[in-house]
Structures are given as structure tokens and as C-alpha cells.
TrEMBL record:
The lineage of its organism: Bacteria, Pseudomonadati, Bacteroidota, Flavobacteriia, Flavobacteriales. This is Bifunctional NAD(P)H-hydrate repair enzyme. Homotetramer. Binds 1 potassium ion per subunit. Residues 9-217 form the YjeF N-terminal domain. Its cofactor is Mg(2+); K(+). It catalyses: (6R)-NADHX = (6S)-NADHX; (6S)-NADHX + ADP = AMP + phosphate + NADH + H(+); (6R)-NADPHX = (6S)-NADPHX; (6S)-NADPHX + ADP = AMP + phosphate + NADPH + H(+). Belongs to the NnrD/CARKD family. Its EC number is 4.2.1.136, 5.1.99.6. It comes from Maribacter aurantiacus.
Amino acid sequence: MKVFTAAQIYKADTFTIEKQQITSDALMERAATQIFNWMHVRMQGAPVKIHLFCGIGNNGGDGIALARHLFEHGYDIAVYVVKYSDKRSKDFLTNLDRLKDRKIWPIYMDADSDLPEIHPNDIIVDAIFGIGLNRTPDAWVAKIIQHLNTSKAFILSVDIPSGLFTDSVPEDKEAVIKANYVLSFQVPKLVFFLPETGIYVEQWEVLDIGLDAEFLMNEKTDFELISKNEVLQFYRPRTKYSHKGTYGHALIVGGSYGKMGAVILTSRAALKAGSGLVTAYVPECGYAILQTAIPEVMVLTNGKEAIEAIEFDMKPTVIGLGIGMGIHDKTVKALEHFLKANKLPLVLDADALNILSKNQDQMDFIPENSILTPHPKELERLVGKWKDDFEKLEKVRQFTDKRKVVIVVKGAHTITFFEGRGYINTTGNPGMATAGSGDALTGIITGLIAQGYSSLQAAIFGVYIHGKSGDISVENTGYQALIASDIIEGIGSAFLDLFKVPEERPDTSEKDG
Ligand SMILES: NC(=O)C1=CN([C@@H]2O[C@H](COP(=O)(O)OP(=O)(O)OC[C@H]3O[C@@H](n4cnc5c(N)ncnc54)[C@H](OP(=O)(O)O)[C@@H]3O)[C@@H](O)[C@H]2O)[C@@H](O)CC1
Ligand SMILES: [K+]
């Protein structure tokens, strides 16, 4: 699913109105009706107080139109108009008149108004600002927002939490609604998925308001959301007359005294992801450990307690490099020497990234289409410090463009970057913030490349499978007890899940995993 900017959404809006020969009011009515239906299905007429806080633009107009539907179905509502500007939109005014026709009189709020009492069991509909927000809300509006945030009532935001910009981070962190649920029109917004702004969105769902399908399909976007549908498109089935050689040979280079477990995790994950053969390349102290831990994996050694040279007499399909490798001087030299001679695409992780960050001149030797999988600290060393999430994404985009590599920016929503585009993952959970989770990911991605997936596909698919496996495993362990080995054990279930028929849903909208 594509992720549009605010400008693109306005473009889709205009295009749709022209092509479908409808009024903007009709589109607003669709939006309000969709939200009403969503609420009505869940509330079934329950006598819960619903406070609707509406702005004076089209987001407010959605709220006002929704109030009419709720009223007509007997819901107990209170409507507030937050008058932050005199420039009321046409469709807002039309809907306000319709409300007044039904003898519903909103409470107008300005800088001097008292804050209304809200009970924790009430429901708040937040329709103050939508994607039209273009500056920080005034202090008195921020006060209302804080009042709603501290009310403990369930907050349902229309389109986007009020105070959250669509394409940048908020300056005043207190002037943003913390939504329990966001019903977003047609497309999710990038800010839902970034660490600094995702905190305002507990759950989200997209509502289809019938924006022109052709426009949505043809419009190019900088970001795409990756769910099952997207990864299924490039899944490579196995064929009857294939053999283990068909599925490649992954070489996993890493390990040092005390960090051999990382290589076990990565090698195992590469096998579980389907690599035909896996060889681990470790220092001698890891030989018995590896051979005992995973009988399916072959082992090559170099150096005693750390790798001193990376040379081998075999032809791997792909090399995963850096896990648990350490940054011993001899290892640094070995990596430099190896990079200068190597032509194979690499999956670079952990200490390989740390070494490269310190020796930027060696970056020139990273082959095109290699994959880098840094965690936040490693990423900072790689691309430099950033002031906010948007600058981070820009720096990563520039780095991937310049080096022609794939970068996997790990996080709650891992984003894979390649050729100027970001692919946002939707699987995974907080239990996966655990030792060795990244080693497992490196193994999965390496294992997929071994089988012939392109670097970009392997990164996107690998991140998806890794997260899905974590989601399946956490059902049995809970967040705290989930460990990297559980994630690896779950890889098989994650693959099987790709082909499960989705459960029937009451609506057709997409949900956050
Ligand atoms: N996607 C779609 O196709 C559909 C979208 N729909 C809905 O429309 C929503 C977008 O509506 P919108 O363009 O009227 O903007 P909205 O967010 O209501 O803001 C209103 C105005 O406030 C102003 N303003 C900005 N910041 C400010 C500040 N800090 N303090 C004070 N004022 C500030 C600014 O005007 P300005 O003063 O800059 O001229 C802005 O124009 C969208 O989120 C969705 O809910 C649906 O109806 C149907 C189809
Ligand atoms: K809103």
C-alpha cells in the first residue's frame, strides 16, 4: 500500500472530484459516513457520551457531519467547535447548517473558554486539525489538546491525530493528540510509522472513501507499506526437480571469543529461511561450538580467537558478514583486504558496519546491491547524526543513492531503503527488542539472497518474515520471554502464514499488524 504525502492526497482529492463529477461536500459525506459506520458497528447504539471536537476546516467538517449521523441514530453527543481561525471552509459551514437544522447547537471554544468536563468512560472524536495543519497550534488550542489527552477517555482521531503534521515532526510535543485509534482516509500517513511521531498513534486503520483508483495506482510515492500482499508478489515457490544446489550457498563470516552465539543464530536463520547450504566462517575457538550446535552447517576457521584473514576455497552465492566478529586490529585488516578483492553482494551487519564507519574510505569497496542492516547507533555512525526522523530518512536515502546499496533501518517499523524509495514493514512487536534478534534477521536476508531473491526483495521479505515469526512466537512466550531462538524457530510458521486465507473482516479496510 502506497504512502502519500499531504500534497499528493490533496491532488487525489481534486482528481477524484473532477473525474467522478461529484462535489467536495459529497466526498466529505462519504468520509463521515464511513466513520459513522465504523463506530456504529462497534457501539451498536450504546448510551456512551461522545464528545466531538471539531476545527473549522474540512477535518472539522468531517466531525460535524459525523455528529449529524450519530445524532440521527440516537447517540448521546456533545459538539464543540474549536475556533482557531475565522477562515471556515465551505463544506464545514454547509455541515454546520445541517446540524443546526436539526436543532443541535455546538459549543464554540476560543482562548477564553472553560474546558469541558470529560469522563474517562466517554468517547472523544478528534476532528480539530487534519492534513491541513501547517503551523504549531496556538497555546490555547494546545491546552484543549492536553485536556483531551489527560481525560483518560478513548480518543478516536479523524484522518490524523490533531496537531500532528503529515510530513514533518511536531515542534511542540504537547500540542498533539495521542490517539487510541486513527481512522485515516484512503491511505496511511508516513508519520504513523516513525519513532518520534508514531507514539501519537496507538492503532490505525484506513477507510476507503473512493478516491480514484487509477490515480492512486499511477501516482509514484517515496514510501510503501509492506504487508502480506506486497511480499507474496515476489515469493519464489520451490520446484519439484530442484536440489539443494538450486537454493544457493550462504557463507556466514563472523564470531570471536565470547560471541560465537551470534554466528549460530545467523547460520541457523539462513538455513531456516531456505538457503540450500550454509557454511560458517569463524575463528578456531568456534569450531566445536558451531559443529555441536548446528549439524546442518559446515564450518571453516581462521585465526584463534578472532578472524585474521577472510580467504576461502569455495564459491558462496552470498556472504553475510560481521556478526559477533569483534573489531580486533587483525580483523579490521582482514576485512579491508577481503573487501578489495570481493565481488559478491554482501549482507553487512554489526561489527562489519562499525569497522566501515571508522574507515569510511573502505566504503568504496562495498559492492553495489549489498545490504546494510544497522541498528540505530550503527546507523548514526554510518550516516552521521540527524535532528529528527525526517532528516534521518533523507540521510539514509542519500547514502543508499550514492553507494547503490540497500539499507535496512531497524525499528518498531523497520524501513528498507533502495534507489530513493522506503519500504515500511508492518510485522513485528516489542518482544523482538532482544539480544540476537538482529543476527537472526541477517541470517534470514542472507538465506533469501542465496535462493535467488534480489537484494531489495530479500531485505523487504526478510524483514517481513522476521517480524511475522516474532508475532507468531510471541503468542506462546509473551513479550518478555521472547528470545532470538524463538524468532528463528518461528520462521517456518511465518512462511506458512503467507498462504493462510485471511479471516473474514466486518469491513474491507487494512489494519496495522
Ligand atoms: N483526503 C481527502 O480526499 C478528503 C479529506 N477530507 C478531510 O479534509 C481534511 C483536510 O482539510 P483542510 O485542508 O481543510 O485542513 P484542516 O486540517 O481541516 O485545517 C483547516 C485549516 O486550518 C488552518 N491551519 C493550519 N494549521 C493551523 C494552526 N496551527 N492554527 C490555526 N489554523 C491552522 C489552515 O488554513 P490556513 O489558515 O493556513 O489558510 C487549514 O487549511 C483531511 O484531513 C480530512 O479530514 C475529507 O473531508 C474528505 C476527503
Ligand atoms: K484530526
